[in-house]
Amino acid sequence: MKRYLLAIAGLLALASCGSDSADGNYNRAADDDLIESQIDTETKASIDSVARATDEGAILHPLPDTLTTLLQQRQPQAGVAVLTDQTMSNRTRQVDNPVYLRGNLNGNRNPDYAVQVLQNDSIHILAFLDYGTPQVREMKVAAYPSQQLNDRRYSNLQLKLAPQDSLVRNPRQQQFTNLKTDGVSVLDGNRTTLYLLQNNRFIPFDAQQ
Predict the structure, then answer these.
(1) Alpha helices in the chain, H assignment, sequence order
(2) Which range is the signal sequence, renumbered to this chain (predicted)?
(3) The pTM is what?
(4) How many Å apart are CA 55 and CA 59, to the nearest integer?
(5) Residue percentage of the chain with pLDDT more than 70
(6) Phi, psi values for residue 70, rounded to 5°
(7) What's the rounded Cα separation, in Å, for the pair 148 and 158?
(8) Which of helix, strand or coil describes residue 53?
(9) Residue 52: which residues within 8 A CB-CB, separation 6 or more?
């Protein structure tokens, strides 16, 4: 009988305890130092790395390997543009990756890239035409000033593909036109400038002849 009473008393004692805390004590918060020690080194290093990247505004958008190789070979002094927090907060749903785009900018069947990079104190929009062929060509689309924050330079721009056959309004001619090729739209705040390849160079859509 005593054994049964002891067993019941033990169960009641357990039932009266609160939920387990991280340090094995009940009914009080876990000790912060113990929680810190229980986080493995690799996890903590990963968390710290993400935190540093966020604090420094250095979260980069991934580029395709082919485009990365082209930049390393042809623009070794340039760096992939890093967007400001304000630009990222204004990012539209229609923009997949604001740093680069892939399309058919010269009207043939070979794919092309456009990418924004930082060169000196300016943001340059570069195009790599026919990048999958030996005849790959690099062309400058446009250049914009960068924004300096905390001794670093950032981009306020987003790139967006303007697909072929899109109906676009020309403000100068007051009429709509179907695009004959893909174009590069550069979003700068509330302003959007569309660049198209014409006569072997990129020009703004409303400046076309």
Answers:
(1) 2-15, 32-38, 41-56, 65-74, 85-89
(2) 1-22
(3) 0.69
(4) 9
(5) 68
(6) -60, -40
(7) 17
(8) helix
(9) none
Average pLDDT score, the chain: 77
Q: What per-residue string of b and e applies to 94-115 under the rule 16 or more CB within 10 Å gives b?
A: ebeebbbbbbbbbeeeebbbbb
Q: In what order do the strands lie in the sheet with 157-162?
A: 157-162, 183-188, 191-198, 201-204
In sequence order, the 6+-apart residues with CB closer than 8 A to the CB of 165 are 178, 179
- Residue-wise pLDDT for 7-55, tens only, equals 444 444 444 444 333 333 334 444 444 434 444 444 444 333 333 333 4
3-class DSSP state for residue 143? strand
What is the rounded radius of gyration, in angstroms, for the C-alpha atoms of the chain? Answer: 28
Give the domain range for residue 93: 65-207
Top-confidence residue, 189 or 25: 189
Does residue 106 fall inside a structural domain?
A: yes
Question: Which residue carries 């009080």 as its tokens?
Answer: 28
Q: Is the CB of residue 122 less than 8 Å from the CB of residue 137? A: no
More confident call, 56 vs 87 = 87
- What is the rounded distance in angstroms from the CA atom of residue 208 to the CA atom of residue 5? 95
Residue 56 lies in a domain: no
Element (H, E) at 201: strand 201-204
- The answer as to whether 72 is a domain residue is yes
Torsion sign across C-alpha atoms 67, 72, 74, 75: positive
Distance separating alpha carbons of residues 104 and 83, to the nearest angstrom: 25
- The DSSP 8-state label assigned to residue 30 in this structure reads P
> How many domains does the structure of the chain reveal?
1
